[in-house]
Amino acid sequence: MRTDIVHIGAGELTYEIRNIVNVGEKLQKLGVPVNWENIGDPIAKGEDIPSWMKEIVVEAVRDNATYGYSPTKGILTTREYIAEQVNSRGGTQIDSGDIIFFNGLGDAISKVFGFLKRTARVIVPTPSYTTHSSAEAAHAGDRPVTYILDPNHYWYPDLEDIENHIKYNPAVAGILIINPDNPTGAVYPEHILRDIVKIAEKNDLFIICDEVYQNMTYNGTRAVPLCTIIGDRVPAICMRGISKEMPWPGSRCGWIEVYNGHRDPMFEKYINSIVNAKMVEVCSTTLPQTVLPRIQSHPEYHAYLEERIRRYEWCSNVAYDILKDVKGLLVNRTNGAFYMSAAFINGTLNHRQSLPIENEDVRKSVAELVSGPDVSPDKRFVYYLLASTGVCVVPLSSFATDLQGFRITLLEQDKERFIGIFKTIAASIKAYIESA
Ligand SMILES: Cc1ncc(COP(=O)(O)O)c(C=O)c1O
What we know:
Blueprint: H1 16-29, E1 35-36, H2 51-61, H3 76-87, E2 99-102, H4 104-114, E3 121-126, H5 130-140, E4 146-150, E5 156-157, H6 159-168, E6 172-178, H7 190-202, E7 206-210, E8 236-241, E9 254-259, H8 265-281, H9 286-296, H10 301-323, E10 329-331, E11 339-344, H11 360-369, H12 377-389, E12 391-392, E13 394-395, E14 405-409, H13 415-434
Parallel strand pairs: 1-12, 3-4, 3-6, 6-7, 7-8
Antiparallel strand pairs: 2-9, 4-5, 8-9, 10-11, 11-14, 13-14
Helix pairs in contact: 2-9, 4-5, 10-13, 11-12
Pyridoxal-5'-phosphate binds at residues 40, 104-106, 129, 131, 178, 182, 210, 212, 241, 243, 249, 254.
């Protein structure tokens, strides 16, 4: 090429949650029966969509209007429905104009970070859901600016770390919160959220709060919505969607709610640039927006969601009970969403450890995979676990963190199989650590 065509942030775009699938598929071809515990897609893990929900979608499919474009910000009646829900919580008040639909939150995330000035940074958690950290890093063409989620303190945000980064890095313009969190499964107490809002106010920053798992909490916890504590001074973007809750990830439908959008002229201009970007693209998917209010206000919706939540609660406790006493591993009970992150205690892993692999081709293939210079210790463990047992998890170090560990989903529907998977992991960790 006569001129460099690669974007400055291209190297920052990684998504190990799907990369690991390439490795899994390769080993599957060699005969390894793979249990896919890597991706947060309830449908892929066998979630049955209730017939009343399908009926609503079928009815909408019969309506010609659902085949057309929708308004740039999204269907007005649906935005009015969402605004009413936000306002009924009694906190900050918004109207339909403060809501913008996207083709899934993935689209919202790439626009929200993509239209930030290159030199303005949003501090993101570490470990971090990669779509956020990669998009933020790619927009800046630099490594993400991160604050610690502390595995020794329920994976809660380290407020001192946030304050220090803000103090010593004037480029920080915003703070990202994911609550409930992916990949840790933590649900933050109200006082921590209030403290983050105070830090934002004191330093004239805005907040991005990803609440896609908002209504999926358990073990007696509740995710306090940002709209109830944001007050009227700090500009914020709240992200929600239907991928996880309904669940309908294939619909590609999510939206942002803008709080205190007129509070700061620069923030207002920034939000307008995001709307204009959507306008250039025309609009987002029409069908899921059409059915959203009908599905969420259906008399059976809450019971259906509740039943799923009780299942995740059961999984979170079984997983915790099996892994909590494994030597060398640091785990916290998951209280929201459907992921668990386990971290290895520093110094537990090395590059000599392995697990027995019967099939010679699989053994050779893994030996090749782990021989590269940049294979982190947890990636090595994950490859051996996959090849030896068929359990496919994601290395924790691929979530923008130096911590070594793994993330696993709590989506397996078959209870016996779920218990079996976690017992296999526990036994494999022991064998792996003892192997060298
Ligand atoms: C915290 C978080 N935000 C956003 C998304 C993306 O959601 P969507 O399917 O709407 O793109 C995910 C998906 O796993 C997620 O975990």
